[in-house]
Every structure is written in C-alpha cells, then in structure tokens.
Amino acid sequence: MDKRPSVGVGVIIIKDGDSILMGRRRNAHGDGDWSVPGGHLEFGESLEHCAEREALEETGVKIGNIRFFTVTNDIFENENKHYITVWMVSDYASGEAKVTEPDKFENVGWFKWDSMPDPLFLPTRNLLKSGLNPFKSKD
C-alpha cells in the first residue's frame, strides 16, 4: 500500500495583538480537541487562499495579512493518519467568530497564546513543542 501524508493548513488568527481564535473539534479526528481553524489544502489552491477559505467557512471570520509561519509533521498513530500541517498566521479583519460549520466545531473562542484550552489537537501540541511563537519575531 502506497500511503502518503495529507496536507493540512492551520491558520493562527491574531486579534487585539494577543489573542488567537480556536474551536473545539467534532466529528473528525481529534474530536473534542481544541484547534485553530484549518483544513485540507485543495488541488491547485494557494496556502493563503486555503487559510482565508477555512477561516471564513468554519468561523465566519475574515482575515488579512496572511503569511507563512512554519510546518509540523503530525502522525496520528491511533488513527493511522499522517499530516504535514502548514501553519499560516493572519490578522483578524472582520466578522463575529461563531460556529458556522457545526459538523466541524462545537464551540469557538479567543484565547491567549499562553493559556489555550485543553485538550489540544496534535498539530497544535507539536507546534507548541517547537517553541515557535507567532507573537515573537523569528529574527
């Protein structure tokens, strides 16, 4: 069997200079875990468009200033799934954060980077283990 990793895009949406938007996942791998909006990269789609599309579809929020942040290698051993997660960072532009896809999120809210809810989705845990922080310069 030739099984290859899938590509996921996670979008860290920054609001008020210190908060990020997260939702509690449902009906997918990581059910019950908290994650940022995101999803599968579609064929021919840019990373920026994927981030913009997923944020709007899942939470009703429009974003701007979308930029690449990092990549994590996420292996869900119990589910036999492997993702390369491309992390994008963006600024909140407009819209009230709400659950717009109740089959994917059961709850959404704004959280400080250092006080995210538990439990966290595996890619988010891997991002935190890397020590990278979207609120600090990579210089």
Provide structural commentary.
With 139 residues, the protein is an alpha+beta fold. It has one domain: Nucleoside Triphosphate Pyrophosphohydrolase (Alpha-Beta Complex), CATH 3.90.79.10. The protein is built from two helices and seven strands. Strands 1, 2, 3, 4, 5, 6 and 7 form a seven-stranded mixed sheet that branches. The protein is globular, with a radius of gyration of 14 Å. The mean pLDDT is 95.
SSE order and pairing:
Layout (H helix, E strand, L loop, with lengths): L5 E10 L3 E7 L8 E2 L2 E3 L6 H13 L2 E15 L4 E14 L10 E8 L9 H9 L9
Parallel strand pairs: 1-6
Antiparallel strand pairs: 1-2, 1-4, 2-3, 2-7, 5-6
CATH-derived topology = Nucleoside Triphosphate Pyrophosphohydrolase
Q: Total number of helical segments?
A: 2
| Total number of beta strands | 7
CATH class descriptor: Alpha Beta
The helicity comes to: 10-25%
Oligomer: single chain
> Mean of the pLDDT scores?
95
Any low-confidence stretches, pLDDT <50, length ≥5?
none
Q: How much of the residues is beta strand, in percent?
A: 35-45%
| Tally of discrete structural domains | 1
SSE string, helices as H and strands as E: EEEEHEEEH
Give me the CATH superfamily: Nucleoside Triphosphate Pyrophosphohydrolase
State the end-to-end CA separation: 42 Å
Indicate the radius of gyration in whole angstroms: 14 Å
Bulk shape: globular
CATH-defined architecture: Alpha-Beta Complex
Give the biggest beta sheet: 7 strands, mixed
- Class from helix and strand fractions: alpha+beta
Question: Would you kindly provide a brief summary of this structure?
Answer:
It contains 2 helices and 7 strands, in the order ββββαβββα. By secondary structure, it is α+β, with helices and mostly antiparallel strands. Strands 1, 2, 3, 4, 5, 6 and 7 form a 7-stranded mixed sheet that branches.
